[in-house]
Amino acid sequence: MKRAVFKNNWVAALMVAPQLLIIFVFFYWPTSQAMYWAFTLEQPWGGGNTWVGFDNFAAILFDDLYWYSVQVSVVYAIGATVLSVGMALILAVFVDRQLRGFKAYKIGMIWPYAIAAPAVGLAFRFIFNPGAGIMLYLNDAFPGAWDPNGNGTHAMIMVIVAGAWKQIAYNFIFFLAGLQSIPRSLLEAGAMDGARVLRRMRDIQLPLLAPTFFFVLVINITDSFTDSFGIVDTMTGGGPARATNLMVYKIFNDGFQGLDYSGAAAQSIILMFLVVALTVVQFRYIERKVHYT
Amino acid sequence: MTKTYPALAALAVACFATTASAEKIKFEYWYGLTGDLGATLAETCNRFNASQDQYEAVCTGYDGYELVVQSAIAAFRAGKAPTILQSFDAGTADLMMSGEFYPVQKMMADFNIEIDWDNYFPGIKNYYSSSKGELFSMPFNSSTAVMYYNVADLEKAGVAAPTTWEEFEAALKAVKDADPARCAYGYEPSVWIDLEQFSAIHNIGIATNNNGYDGLDTEFTYNTTMHVKHMENIQRWITEGLAEIKTAATGMTSQDAFAQNICSFYFGSIASHSSVHLKGVEGLTWDVAMLPIFEGTTRHNSVVGGASLWVLSGKSEDEYRGAAEYMKFLATAESEKWWVSNTGYIPVTKAAFEQLTAEGFYSAAPYKGREVAMTSLTFTEPGPLTRGYRLGSMIQTRAEWKSEVEAALAGQKTMQEALDTAVERSNAMLAKFAKTYAGKTLP
Questions:
Q1: Which listed residue, A156, A211, A214, A247, has the most CB atoms within 10 A of its CB?
Q2: Is it true that B4-143+305-363 and B145-302+392-436 share their CATH fold?
Q3: Chain-chain contact of B406 with A47 (C-beta, under 8 angstroms)
């Protein structure tokens, strides 16, 4: 493969400098601060902090409720990713088949991504309100069938649906682009050999979509660990009985509401390493099965 | 909406006034009250600014106490803190430990502004004072918890307003007997009412070291006190159908359930008095009474809730002078009366309360009944166990109580187990708080 190389390194450095500066200011600097706080006990109003080594991490790792929060986050990540990737794939395939009105669909499908997470949460809170709207009919027919305020599983389903809904749009764009980059000739050849729609999908489109699929998977899992805050905050506030207390929401709660800056900093460091580790694992083990054309 | 417009208009006028007289010395004031109460607070700023040609309060509202405190902390660390901060009880311990404030009593003395501090109700003053009696923050919006009851329901059931928990249970049964479909008691877990107010009026502590006043090595003890029995009673009432859980999460808060004439009893802050009036449906007859106590115990004073005004450190002398003028303005009986009649809060000085009573403020609707809060708050002189709570990590420890009580009410564990867990987890937080401020003592 031929590589494009800058002859003049100074020009190259100048080009990347703004980007590096931004990364430094908005990523490395805050991370180093969080790292420092995680090993100290920070007084909220300033006025000094004490070095405590790994105490903050030990306190978190020996806390049952922290592990419960991890467990809840994993459930959310898997649920939201499977649902959003699955739905987006189906929708993208339909649009790619150029069914009637697909142009309108295409635009409509992209819009939800432009909506901020808290707004999504608010909208879905109305949709899933057990005492009003469509869910009221369900509860009238089967009393107690839908109770996100008392039942942790229901609350989790509600949060997953809202989170997945927002993410579908993003995945859809990538899947559609992926599908449209598959040469028509391949599909036509398959059709001439007698392969029907589903067969063509399984043997031609999905394998060729693997790189897109992998990219979307990494982004979705990362996103569900870090970006779920707004939805949880507006929909459940982490409840009932901590059933939707995702890791990122717990960090906000402990740090900003509870003024436990050090504990929250330690939790964000753990979360950061978790997301990094997950991404590494995905690249090492899943990417091997992906063939780039 | 109609209420907001005058406030907005006044704000706009205030803005123009600012540009017109730029030589006024400005100071920042951040508050956490929202909605109607926030608009009323903004109005006190406008009233102050209109009365002043030297100083100007620049008032900024935040969406809740927690947010205003965390914003002030962030601003403080960046050197951009406001001069006056409205902070709630749960933020008190951190502020006191930091020492980053200008004690209001000292500030007023430094600027030679005469304030009769003995005029303040001891129950209110003590809450915001150091253990040595120096007032640290300015008492402002104060409240306490009371029992709201439906007069018609109790008449129909043939019982009087209960003064003890035993009578309360009998009243619940009587209401249910009179009308089995009625929601007798709309219950909403409230750590402030069920634990803090309950313990104060029974003169029992919730934590060692006199509820934290005497040192940082404090531990919670409420899993061993009468509080357990009280919570077990509530749980039993719910299982027996005498009480129903009414929270925002179940679709209707206990306050709304009471105001909409669905439940006969509701426990809440006296500050909700005006809300119940505004929301009350046609035909609702109601009154308030002091919280019940257990038979065989002696009633003590309840504790004050709400928020107070802190003056933060690191500001200029001019800004402090402005803040002092604002406090002086607030401390007048006239300002206080204006604040009390436009909100549901209680007067913080004896003079204002006496004046209001003399003017007949408390003898007619819609303000009749609010004096119950004063009776409750001043029932006895505040003692070591009833002057308040000086506990670190209060937001988190309160949340622990709530989560565990919810778990018990959902049937996941017994109430005793739940409270034991809450105490154990909260103690770890107190220990961490003490460690954060190692070597320091509460002022």
A1: A247
A2: yes
A3: no
